[in-house]
Design a protein that fits this description.
Chains A, B: GO terms for molecular function: catalytic activity; pyridoxal phosphate binding. Chains A, B: Keywords: Pyridoxal phosphate. Chains A, B: This is Threonine-phosphate decarboxylase. Chains A, B: InterPro entries: Aminotransferase_I/II_large, PyrdxlP-dep_Trfase, PyrdxlP-dep_Trfase_major, PyrdxlP-dep_Trfase_small. 2 copies of one chain form a homodimer. Chain A is α/β, with parallel strands linked by helices and about 350 residues long. Chain A has 2 domains: about 120 residues, Aspartate Aminotransferase, domain 1; about 220 residues, Type I PLP-dependent aspartate aminotransferase-like (Major domain) (Aspartate Aminotransferase, domain 2). Helix content of chain A is about 35%, strand content about 15%. Chain A is built from 12 helices and 13 strands. The first copy, chain A, has a 7-stranded mixed sheet with strand order 2-8-7-6-5-3-4, sandwiched between helices. In chain A, helix 4 packs across helix 8. The longest helix of chain A has 22 residues. Chain A is globular and about 55 Å long. The N and C termini of chain A lie far apart (about 40 Å). Chains A and B meet through helix 1, helix 2, helix 4, helix 5 and helix 8 of A and helix 1, helix 2, helix 4, helix 5 and helix 8 of B.
């Protein structure tokens, strides 16, 4: 009934194989397994707020996000997850859209839902930005969509050069930085500090993944382009951010200890996982700077491994074959808690050999 | 920046007059002031859920709603408040849309946002459905939007006759029943039990108002029209309902005691308010079957009274002048807790005379 290209199929997999969520290790969603301290307190506080309609302009919320990013709150538009921001942006964008693949499928779905024509571009074989490929196709699009760090490759890089190129050609750059906070030295890669300077830039972020609360639904868009952001406000449905999401933002962004601890954790844990995964036969491991890892299978195909892990090991991974530019050789796994990661690695060792 | 026609202006009014929310009595939003028992427990339980993505098909949630309404879950599509359902429906509707005014302004805003042409129709002067007016305009629209009980009039009536007329002409009826649960004998007026029989019917509901939690954001659409509902699922953004909303629906619909108590409360309280309001000079009170009352001012205009109540009495009411078909003589007030209602009545008595 619902045609979605991504891996959000925990429920359907459980249904298919008669399994219960309690004992499934879900490596298919890229979520921080550790949530901020005292979050239960902030959530209960949000209950009081929820007996009233949220402020339709979300002034407080935008100020909290603005303080976190050191940006004026007027540059910020909040949404029900990054999804709402993506769809709303597609609603006000005109001209054709370049998308650099492989990447999150909702960009294309949102564009198509708003009758925007897509130009598919591709990263190079190491999942780095292919500037020549983009330059050669510059005439074909008005805006370019890049996910950085990229989902599913885990690669992060500086996009300043492409931002500059697009600026000169009067074209727009949209960067999904949803996974940027997981990157250890993210200040080297984020474009947030260039928002004021470049009005051809739109950045999408979310609290979903880094703060470990995808079910609370909060994303936001950032741009100094007044034309784009005011059009988005015009089309925005009212009250899309709930009171619980609104309320925790008074606290979580200020929790520097948690933020630093999380960054440190993922830096170490991804090194541990990549080292151990590299010992396994029949797979190729791609370097990652964020909280998930792309793997290439050299012997089995993705659906076989996915089913085997689920049925025999109660582990759910992301079959990455439906990302444009990938094929049935690719799977993606999240970085979770140490003992869970070990369970995954052991299961893969058993199935693929060491 | 945001052009919204409704009264959600608590934040801007407070900002304008330098007041704080703590002591403002908000009669502009029509929300049940009593929330279900144990809701804090259900909310905290939802925190666990929120560390995962919600089921993108919301199977459990739809089954809970289905059980509540005694309907198959496949007829139900959940959304981020009634708003998402309204916008999504406008996205898949074709042909022109008749709207019966005065009514909630988001129907028109959603239609315009999706380039649907509007035909404005009107209730009669007692805010009853004007069947002749609708019959005379049947050729001009493909679907008709009615809010029942109507916001802002508070009038409720049976829509079976118009449903039948539209069915014969192969036209669609959309009914916003957001306020239906407040009606004492709502079974006489709701069309929910005709959903199976009439595939030209779409009903919009929400937990927002009756269960007193607008900030939790949950509405839903109901139809047996497979074409409409499958198109809506196709266009639906993923995960728009948060885990907290999802989780409380396992409980609140089963709380028959709370539901009955609420219905009884509003039946008594609206009688009390209407009786007392009728003692006040210079206003005309319209009968209401739900949790708000429309008033016509015979001496002052709506913006004067709104400002006076806010500045002098810390009471916020809804200036109803921007509803199509109304004018600067109309205001709307919610039914709240007894002592709050008394404060409003006393303030109005003081300003308008007895």
């Amino acid at each position: 009934m619902i045609k979605l290209g991504h891996g959000a199929d925990v429920a359907s997999m459980m249904l298919k194989y008669g399994k219960k969520e309690d004992y499934i290790l879900d490596f298919s969603s890229n979520i921080n397994p550790y949530i901020p301290e005292n979050i239960d307190k902030y959530i209960l506080e949000g209950l009081n707020l929820s007996t009233k309609y949220p402020d339709v302009e979300y002034l407080n919320l935008r100020k909290n996000i603005g303080n976190y990013l050191d940006l004026d709150y007027e540059y910020i538009i909040p949404g029900n997850g990054a999804s709402e921001i993506i769809y709303l942006l597609m609603k006000v964008l005109d001209g054709q859209l370049g998308i650099v693949n492989p990447t999150f499928s909702e960009y294309e779905r949102a564009a198509k839902s708003n009758n925007i024509k897509i130009i598919d571009l591709y990263f190079d074989k190491n999942f780095k930005l292919d500037l020549d490929n983009i330059r050669n196709n510059l005439d074909k699009f008005k805006a370019l969509f890049i996910c950085n760090p990229n989902n599913p490759s885990g690669n992060v890089e500086s996009l300043i050069e492409i931002l500059e190129i697009l600026k000169k050609k009067d074209k727009f750059l949209i960067v999904d930085e949803t996974f940027m906070e997981f990157v250890y030295e993210s200040e080297k890669y984020t474009l947030v500090n260039l928002i004021k300077e470049y009005d051809n830039l739109f950045i999408i972020k979310a609290i979903t993944k880094f703060f470990g609360l995808p079910g609370i639904r909060l994303g936001y868009g950032i741009t100094s382009n007044k034309n784009i952001i005011s059009k988005m406000w015009e089309h925005k449905e009212p009250w899309t951010v709930n009171s619980f999401a609104e309320n925790i933002c008074s606290y979580i962004f200020k929790d520097k200890k948690y933020i630093e601890k999380t960054k440190n954790y993922f830096k170490e844990e991804i090194n541990f996982m990549i080292k151990d995964l590299n010992e396994i036969k029949n797979i190729e491991v791609f370097e990652s700077s964020t909280n998930f890892i792309l793997l290439k299978l050299n012997k089995y195909n993705s659906s076989y491994i996915k089913e085997k892990l689920f049925v025999e090991k109660n582990i759910l991974i992301r079959d990455a074959s439906n990302f444009k530019g990938l094929d049935t050789n690719y799977i993606r796994v999240a970085v979770k808690k140490r003992e869970e990661n070990e369970a995954l690695i052991n299961a893969l060792k058993e199935i693929l050999g060491v």
